[in-house]
Design goal:
The complex is a heterodimer of chains A (about 200) and B (about 150). Chain A has about 200 residues and is an alpha+beta fold. Chain A has helices spanning about 45, 60-70, 90-110, 170-185, and strands at about 1-10, 15-20, 25-30, 40, 50-55, 115-120, 125-130, 135-140, 150-155, 160-165, 185-190, 195-199. Chain A has two domains: about 1-55, no CATH class; about 75-199. Chain A is globular, with a radius of gyration of 18 Å. Chain B has one domain (about 40-150). In chain B, about 25% of the residues lie in helices and about 25% in strands. The longest helix of chain B is centred in the N-terminal third of the chain and has 16 residues, at about 15-30. Classes of the chains: A alpha+beta (about 200), B alpha+beta (about 150).
Chain lengths: ~200, ~150
């Protein structure tokens, strides 16, 4: 999946396009011509050499993916206890999984999921870790192709989700759980009157 | 000698190496100098955390993983507070200054589905204890929440 921002100078608007294999979806994002802060993502970071913008709703996800590439720089035995290195194919599977799910949540539910911490996991795997004050979710993308990704999340109380999924395909159940938690987090109790308010 | 098939949990080396590991395991367990003991729920385990597993002062879930290549001696290594201080646990690391020590409550670890705490002493470390069981995403998240820093990484 590719993210591409095009700047149309004649109409002073930016166009955000998401290409997902066969289908294409275009949503205009209006911005002042001078305020559009476009940032080049180098060829090695995404493999696409394309552009993203602060106005891209999934900008933070892309930045997290970009920053996570340093996982590939870890040498063998990087924890002094025999930890395995993470392969580029595993990193690509994990980041594609994240992009696909973030795009699906935005396109179908209008929710921008927050960027997770993208971390080295056990045995050359990669962990995607969301942690907020109201929920925590851990997704593990294994270092071996063909094996399912596993996940566990809860709201620190009784509500939890756990299972295994195909990392190649967006999982609606997992997205629904995550977007529900994100939506809940947008409503926090007011300190003054004890009633919920939108932030 | 019949050729051994390889499964996910099977050690890939030869039968001779496998038997050697069995001998090490039995020797460690059967020595009269280092007796196996039952660990009470109210005790603590000291868990060594390498600096690579710390982000913004917090331990990342990837820190909780099994070590050891043989299934019989594979587990998450910790030290029982009955026979070790946090400082001693830290000094067992290859580079002590790169490691911190977190404590885990034994009863709380046993309460995590699928995990068990097993004293696994050997000659040079009577405190050595394994946390056994699959370190899946649920176990790792819950272990992370249980950890309390005893010695932070400088």
């Amino acid at each position: 999946m590719n993210l591409l921002l095009k700047q149309d100078t004649s109409e002073e608007k930016a166009t955000f396009r998401v290409s997902n294999h066969t289908e294409e979806w275009v949503q205009p994002i209006y911005a002042h011509k001078d305020s559009v802060d476009v940032e080049r993502i180098d060829q090695e970071s995404t493999g696409t050499g394309e552009w993203i913008s602060d106005h891209d709703p999934l900008h933070r996800i892309e930045m997290a993916i970009r920053g996570s590439r340093s996982i590939l720089d870890l040498a063998s035995d990087w924890d002094d206890a025999g930890a395995s290195t993470c392969s580029e194919s595993t990193w690509k599977r994990a980041t594609t999984f994240l992009r696909d799910h973030a795009n699906w949540a935005y396109r179908h539910q209008g929710v921008i999921i927050p960027p997770p911490a993208i971390l080295p996991g056990p045995d050359g795997s990669i962990d995607l870790h969301w942690r907020t004050t109201t929920y925590e979710l851990l997704v593990n993308v294994p270092g071996t192709t063909g094996r399912p990704a596993s996940f566990y999340g809860d709201d620190y109380r009784s509500l939890s989700i756990k299972g295994t999924i195909n990392p190649e395909l967006p999982n609606r159940g997992l997205i629904a759980w995550l977007t529900d938690r994100v939506s809940e987090e947008m409503v926090v109790p007011s300190e003054n009157d004890g009633q919920a308010r939108q932030v | 000698m019949a050729k051994r098939g390889k499964s996910e949990h099977e050690h890939p080396e030869s039968l001779r190496a496998w038997l050697a590991w069995c001998w090490v395991y039995v020797a460690r367990r059967s020595t009269r100098f280092v007796r196996w003991e039952s660990i009470p729920d109210q005790d603590l385990l000291f868990f060594r955390v390498h600096k690579s597993y710390v982000r913004n002062g917090d331990i990342i879930p990837g820190a909780f993983r099994d070590q050891g290549i043989h299934p019989l001696v594979r587990g998450m290594s910790t030290d029982w507070n009955k026979y070790s201080t946090p400082e001693e646990s830290r000094w067992r690391a290859r580079t002590p200054s790169d490691n911190g020590i977190a404590s885990l409550d034994v009863g709380a670890v046993r309460a995590i589905p699928g995990l068990a705490v097993d004293h696994d002493p050997y000659w040079s470390n009577r405190a050595h204890t394994h946390v056994l069981g699959e370190k899946d995403t649920e176990a790792r998240l819950k272990l992370k929440r249980l950890c309390r820093w005893v010695i932070r990484i400088p």
